[in-house]
Amino acid sequence: MSVRSAAHAAARVRRVAAVGQTVNAAESLARTHLYADDGILRGQAVATDAPLARRSRRLATILDHPRTATALSAANLVCGLATLAFADRRAVRVATAVTSTAVANLTAQRNPYGRDGSDQMQRVIQGYDAISAVVADPESADDLFLRAVNAQLAISYAASGLIKLVSSDWRSGRAFAGVMRTSMYGDPRVSRLLDRFPFLGTLVCWQTILWETAFPVIYLLPERLSRPTLAFAKVFHLAIGHFMGLPRFIWAFSATHPATEYVLEARGTTPTASVSRLLRGGAETTTEVAA
Predict the structure, then answer these.
(1) How many C-beta atoms surround the C-beta of residue 291 within 10 A?
(2) C-beta neighbour count of 184 within 10 angstroms
(3) Do the beta carbons of residue 230 and residue 258 sit within 8 Å?
(4) Which of 1, 48, 83, 197 is the most exposed place for a label (fewest CB within 10 A)?
(5) How many other C-beta atoms lie within 10 A of the C-beta of residue 191?
């Protein structure tokens, strides 16, 4: 795998994730009234005894202030826009990844409620990007970042499928129909369809269980089958975004797919030159110590 392909894949991951980050930040800034003391997104760091509150109640009080929430959203917006414009520049990458990770952690302490899998995946991408920045060689850093994101995606899909597998609601098909009947995540058209054809709910539930649980098998499939499998995952997130009103899932999880494509393309190839140098350097050091 060439330096250019690793850098290109890593930039794709960052840019797609940055779209979701930018949209979310813009939405937050447009709803600053929700951060007020009587708003649904008001600060809860002190009330819930968040880690920061246990260390410093004064800092937690500042974190709970509506203006702090606005500042955090503004920082998120700046990081998202900067990543979209300069995703392939190392200095910008490090700055935005570290800042975004800090903002996400502070926001989670400020209000721990209402987060879902897309928020967690967004934090994972930014966190891994920040951690991989400690690797001096850009090629090795991008390779580490992509493989870490890919591993997290495979674990997330498989774990989600296994959790559904042990749920009687999912095995019976009731889970999908129940969600579609809710006012927040449901869709009246789909709900009426499921009432008319209940077997469709069971079909959707089991299809979701099987593909999520079996996702790691993608690494054993030939390219002509692995690519359609990944494309199906994209369609799945598009459907969630459309029918459940969760567009964040589209950006957060689609951002991880270039990492999986990178790993799939790298199967059977030799380590990159920089990784080979690192391995040789480690072997030489071990030999010298042994001598």
Answers:
(1) 5
(2) 8
(3) no
(4) 197
(5) 18
